[in-house]
Write a structure and sequence with these properties.
Layout lengths: L1 H13 L8 H22 L3 H14 L4 H13 L3 H11 L5 H13 L5 H19 L4 H15 L1 H14 L3 H16 L2 H8 L4
Helix pairs in contact: 1-10, 2-3, 3-4, 4-5, 5-6, 6-7, 7-8, 8-9, 8-10, 8-11, 9-10
Amino acid sequence: MMKVYIGIMAIMLATCKSNSKGQEAKTKSQSCSVFNDKYIEYVMAEQKDSALYYIDKAITCDPDDDFFKFEKVKLLLKYGNYAAATSNVKDMMSDNSPTYEMLYGIILLKQNNSKAEKVLESAYDSFDKLTKEYEEENSSLQYYKLGLDNYFNGQNYTLEAIEKFKDNYKDQHNIALVDYLKDIVVQEAREDVLYKMFNMN
């Protein structure tokens, strides 16, 4: 189940940003994806150093592609390197993405930093505004907001919101992703749900 979840997360994160790239940028990202493919291979094999090497190669190849940078942050988090993950995600926050702000808040929460609550509240407000603006157009915004719904409004509220999400997004990868989220919402404490959404131990 975890390998399926990681694959689904890769798809969700690839669609997380709403701005589109020009044809030249798309071609560049496609050529750099060779490094990302090697990165995924080494992540699955639990070979941290090789995985880090290849994701750094992907970032060097296309420094404007936040997907590669986000993958690096996830790898750093997986192995508990919170200082490096924090530094990397703070650099990405200049894009005003509430997903990055959310992740920054979660990293602070994991480290018992008193700023965490304020950062998460700010991300939640941003998700709320964006989900109203885009309505049903962006499932990844809705998905991440569900994690914060659970953190701020509790399990019952979130389980109802998950059912609404499933009514709006009936494709297989969204259903699998939100079913995973539903399982962890039922089983885990509110902060642990956030950690698991980003594959943090």
